[in-house]
Amino acid sequence: MSSVSVTESADCLQVQGHVQYDTPDHITPSNVHTSPLEQFHIWFNQAREANVREPDAMSLSTATTSGIPSSRMVLFKQLDKRGFVFYTNYTSRKSRELEQNPQAALLFFWREMSRQVRVLGRVEKLSKEESEEYFKSRPVGTRLGAWASHQSSVIGEDDLVHRLAEVQERFGVQASDKEGDVPLPDFWGGWRVIPSEVEFWLGKPSRLHDRVRYLRVEGSPDDQPRWTIDRLSP
Ligand SMILES: Cc1cc2nc3c(=O)[nH]c(=O)nc-3n(C[C@H](O)[C@H](O)[C@H](O)COP(=O)(O)O)c2cc1C
After folding, report:
1. Boundaries of each Pyridoxamine 5'-phosphate oxidase N-terminal domain copy (predicted)?
2. Residue 84 above 80 pLDDT?
3. pLDDT band at 4, cuts 50/70/90?
4. Whose Cα sits closest to atom 18 in ligand 1?
5. Ligand 1 centroid – CA 28 distance (Å)
6. What span, in angstroms and rounded, lies between the C-alpha atoms of 193 and 230?
7. Rounded to whole angstroms, how far apart are CA atoms 38 and 10?
8. What is the DSSP code (8-state) at residue 112?
9. How far apart are CA 161 and CA 194, in angstroms?
10. b or e along 146-168 (b: 16 or more beta carbons within 10 Å of the residue's beta carbon)?
11. Could you read off the pLDDT of 26-59 as tens digits, one per residue?
12. Which of the following is catalytic: 207, 213, 216, 231?
């Protein structure tokens, strides 16, 4: 049964209901890690252990140079000393926006744990070598799919099927093959979001949630950032 109910009239859909968040945990600046990347690591592992469905799914927001935002889900693939990595097509809408305005916002929502993590920061492209290493680890079908899709462009009904047939022929492998030599397309790779702000949110009763925000000390190095930590009002 859904946790929301609705009232519908001819011109309006109104939604009522709210899940009561009631976690026994408590976060505050004094009990979190001094680094938000380490704190994320801890929470991510806890989300996996709690069998959160798709803990690696995150919303990515970008904006045009005139400030028009857009969001979509992507998969979080790596957290290194510098930041959060995801992979995509470099000609897609998100990548075009990131090229012009290299700032992004990420959002994780782990419903089963009443937790949310917000990340803001500038982005950089991964090196070709880094993207190549990841690309090689993907199944053949997914690698062919990257070649076949001109992501975010308008296509006709059968275009994808034709494109897939073309690339299968070009590389002499089938999408169902277990192995095959499918190189990294030069229009595909990773982006890294280097955080300047990270917020951890924990749902509590009466909407008096816990919020802990890290702000990066300006000028501190990318691979060894320093942070100020504050508790925010819900
Ligand atoms: C759970 C989930 C995970 C996704 N992961 C990715 C991803 O890692 N990379 C990607 O390019 N698109 C991914 N997508 C598809 C994107 O949401 C989006 O449709 C696509 O990237 C085109 O976005 P754009 O036109 O804004 O560039 C995912 C979608 C969902 C629902």
Report:
1. 47-161
2. yes
3. confident
4. 72
5. 33
6. 22
7. 50
8. G
9. 37
10. bbbbeeeeeeeeeeeeebbeebb
11. 999 999 999 999 999 999 999 999 999 999 999 9
12. 207
List, for residues 197-208, the tens digit of each pLDDT value: 999 999 998 889
Query: Can you give the residue ranges of every domain in the chain?
Result: 5-127+187-231
Q: Give the type of residue at 7.
A: T
d(CA 81, CA 184): 25
From 141, 138, 125, select the one nearest 187 (Cα to Cα). 125
DSSP H or E run through 40:
helix 36-49
Residue showing tokens 């990347």: 37
User: Is 207 an active-site residue?
Assistant: yes
Please report the pLDDT score of residue 1 as a whole number: 67
Strands 188-202 and 84-89: antiparallel
Please identify, in words, the CATH class of the domain defined by 5-127+187-231.
mainly beta
What's CA 198's distance to the chain center, in Å? 13
Measured distance CA(51)–CA(45) in Å, rounded:
10
- Residue 72: phi and psi, rounded to 5, are -160, 165
